[in-house]
Amino acid sequence: MEFVAIDFETANEFRSSACAIGFAVVSDNKIVERQQYLIKPPMMYFNPFNVALHGITEKHVKNEPHFNELWPSIKCFFEKRLIVAHNASFDISVLRNTLDEYQVPYPEFDYCCTRIISKATWPNHVSYALNHMAAYLGLDFIHHNAEEDAVACANVLIRAAKELGVKSQLELAELSKVKAFKTVANTENDDQNHRLYGNYRGEYLIVF
After folding, report:
1. Ramachandran assignment for 124, one of left (phi > 0), alpha (psi -120 to 50 degrees), beta (any other)
2. Residue 126 and residue 137: Cα distance in Å, rounded?
3. Contact criterion met (CB below 8 Å) for 200 and 192
4. Domain containing residue 143: CATH number
5. What letter would DSSP give residue 105?
6. What's the pLDDT score for residue 205?
7. What local confidence, expressed as pLDDT, does residue 176 receive?
8. Among 25, 108, 124, 155, which residue has the fewest nearby CB atoms (within 10 Å)?
9. Tens digit of each residue's pLDDT (9 = 90 or more) over 123-157
10. pLDDT, tens digit, for every residue of 5-38?
11. What DSSP string describes 121-159?
């Protein structure tokens, strides 16, 4: 399987406040690249609750690039890729809100959620949080470190594929019954009068 696992950490409750992003690039079911980038958020306010989770403060990011400055270096991880995240609705929302903050167009990519895939692969667990799934699968990692979370997420999907005996995204979708979403960069032709406009703007369901 070929995909890129991502994880965002945020400075505060606003989804545009990305302060770190982690990547784990997977090729042929092996992690071939891993990376973390610190990000200077648009508003330098770090909520103590968020800091308690990831340990990132203003002093760590004061000399780091804003997301729009970093984007040219990292957009290759997203374009025309399968993006995977644990609780993907959060990470994709952070990406979109942060891109919106700087008026950067959305890249086009498919994405899916390893939390949902975990439920389909290992039913009847008490919790499908990333730390619980990592513990169940015997994966050691530092929770809420963006790079470590991305690597753990990648390993969850690799293990799920192995558990189900699949070798491709299509086989995984068929066996787990999990669908993926697709972001689209251009929404100018959207029907703004449609009853679902605004709820699913910029995405549509596909089976990958």
Report:
1. left
2. 14
3. no
4. 3.30.420.10
5. P
6. 31
7. 67
8. 124
9. 999 999 999 999 999 999 999 999 999 999 999 99
10. 999 999 999 999 999 999 999 999 999 999 999 9
11. HSTT-S---HHHHHHHHT----TT-HHHHHHHHHHHHHH
CA distance 63 to 54: 18
**Which tens digits make up the pLDDT trace of 166-195?**
888 878 777 666 666 676 554 443 444 433
Q: How far apart are CA 2 and CA 17, in angstroms?
A: 29
How many distinct structural domains can be found in the chain?
1
Read off the amino acid at residue 193: N
Distance CA(87)–CA(144), nearest Å, equals 13
Handedness of CA 106, 108, 109, 110 (dihedral sign): positive
Helix-then-strand count for the chain, H and E: 8, 7
Which H or E run contains 52? helix 48-54
* Strand pairing category for 3-10 and 18-27: antiparallel
Burial 52-69 (b: 16+ CB within 10 A, else e): eebebeeebbeebebbee
Per DSSP (E only), the strands in the chain are: 3-10, 18-27, 30-38, 82-85, 109-113, 180-183, 203-206
**Domain of residue 74, residue span:** 3-206
Q: Residue 179's pLDDT is what?
A: 61
